[in-house]
From TrEMBL:
Pfam families: Peripla_BP_6. Residues 1-17 form the signal peptide. Residues 39-377 form the Leucine-binding protein domain. It comes from Viridibacillus arvi. It comes from the Bacteria. InterPro entries: BCAA_transport, Leu-bd, Peripla_BP_I. This is ABC transporter permease. Keywords: Signal. The keyword Manganese does not apply. Belongs to the leucine-binding protein family. PROSITE patterns: PROKAR_LIPOPROTEIN. CDD domains: PBP1_SBP-like. Transmembrane segments: none annotated.
């Protein structure tokens, strides 16, 4: 009996030693692999088809160029290769959630980026927190993303709606300036006017009329006549869609009645619908000739080389900036992609982009960034009104209010 017990003890001892040896060997191998490198996987959600396909295309081109620029063409950071997985949300929130879940579970991505639609983005935000992965929001603009729906894993390189409003106000509002607003009669218009009014009144301007129109209407005559009657110095227009009011504004000759028109300069395709607004003063998020810095010079030159002499469009620099922010964050963490590790490193982080310096505000992770006061002018050889710089609006001027519950 004693003999068998001794044999059993020897066997158990050998087994434990073997297990311990295997564990040690496995750990050493893992540590060796970690030191030698590895892969950082980035999952990007974008509207690569459907109504917002052009936005998704711009983001994709910008993101790829941004990675190239930030890594000096090596596609690696801190000794780790960067791999990008693209998914099309089709601008459907339910699809965005499915694709994001696939990226997180099947592809095992370290970062999420996206999306072209605020609806898609809002649907995905909880997943970033659940999986504890950093999500860079680009180009979705809804205030609630870094406001009521904020979670600490969300960082946004895109500007938000309030930044647009503050830029619009900074471009035209002064003490005593009388302004009327015109917008579609639904949440997009209401929110846009509310934010603009707050920013304009803060600068001492007076909003003398808020006029809302049926977003499906084709005749805005009665609405615009109310604007004329209010006698503002400026008419600030918040609009999106093909049934725009620009032609009727021109037909009613509001400018000849002493009313200056102001709005945000959109992407190049939409600028082609704004020919009646030559001479208008407003704001721009980006146009390729507005920023004066080396990063933008590189972007414009490389974009032309790679994409049939096309210039970068409205959402291209945002994709670029989101890529740069990831690379800069990984430099700070020495390649550690753990979300909880990255959050304190990214809060307050500044990085250079085609728009100049961006900084993730600590309180809500919204990137503060330059915007542009512009005037639309005709330019020889260009078939749309070109945004020409009046002055650059500083990140402080266009900083939106902090709206989260952090």
């Amino acid at each position: 009996m004693k003999k068998w017990l001794a044999i059993l003890l020897v066997a158990v001892t050998l087994l434990l030693a073997a297990c311990g040896s295997d564990k040690k060997t496995s750990g050493s191998s893992s540590e060796k692999d970690e030191k030698e490198g590895g892969t950082i996987k980035v999952g990007v959600l974008a509207s690569l088809s459907g109504a917002l396909e052009s936005y998704g295309k711009q983001t994709k081109q910008g993101f790829e160029l941004g990675l190239d620029y930030a890594t000096n063409g090596k596609m690696e950071v801190a000794g780790k290769k960067i791999e990008v997985v693209w998914e099309d949300t089709e601008t459907k929130p339910e699809v965005a959630v499915q694709k994001a879940t696939k990226l997180l579970e099947d592809d095992g991505v370290d970062f999420l980026v996206g999306s072209s639609s605020s609806g898609d983005t809002l649907a995905v935000l909880p997943l970033a927190e659940e999986y504890e992965k950093i999500m860079i929001v680009e180009p979705a603009v809804a205030d609630s993303i870094t406001g009521a729906e904020f979670n600490p894993f969300i960082f946004r390189t895109a500007r938000n709606s309030s930044q647009d409003a503050y830029a619009a106000a900074a471009a035209i509002a002064k003490k005593g300036t009388k302004i009327a607003t015109f917008a579609p009669d639904y949440s997009f218009g209401w929110d846009g006017v509310k934010a603009f009014k707050a920013a304009a009144e803060k600068l001492g301007a007076e909003v003398v009329l808020e006029e809302y129109a049926d977003p499906a209407a084709t005749d805005f005559t009665s609405n615009l006549q109310k604007v004329v009657k209010a006698k503002p110095e400026y008419l600030f227009v918040v609009w999106a869609g093909t049934n725009s009011p620009w032609n009727q504004i021109a037909d009613l000759k509001l400018t000849e009645k002493g009313i200056k028109i102001s709005t945000g300069a959109p992407d190049i395709a939409a600028l082609q619908l704004m020919k009646p607004l030559v001479g208008m003063e407003g704001f721009s998020v980006y146009y390729h000739t507005l920023p004066k810095n080396k990063v933008n010079d590189w972007l414009v030159e490389e974009h032309k080389k790679r994409f049939n002499n096309e210039v970068p469009d409205l959402f291209t620099p945002g994709g670029f900036s989101s890529a740069v922010s990831i690379v800069e964050a990984l430099k700070k963490s020495d390649g550690n992609a753990d979300g909880n590790t990255l959050i304190p490193l990214m809060e307050g982080m500044s990085f250079e982009t085609p728009k100049g310096k961006m900084t993730f505000r600590k309180e809500d992770h919204q990137a503060l960034q330059p915007m542009y006061s512009i005037k639309l002018e005709e330019q020889k050889g260009v078939d749309y009104p070109v945004p020409v710089l009046i002055r650059e609006l500083t990140p402080d001027e266009t900083a939106p209010p902090i709206q989260n519950k952090k």
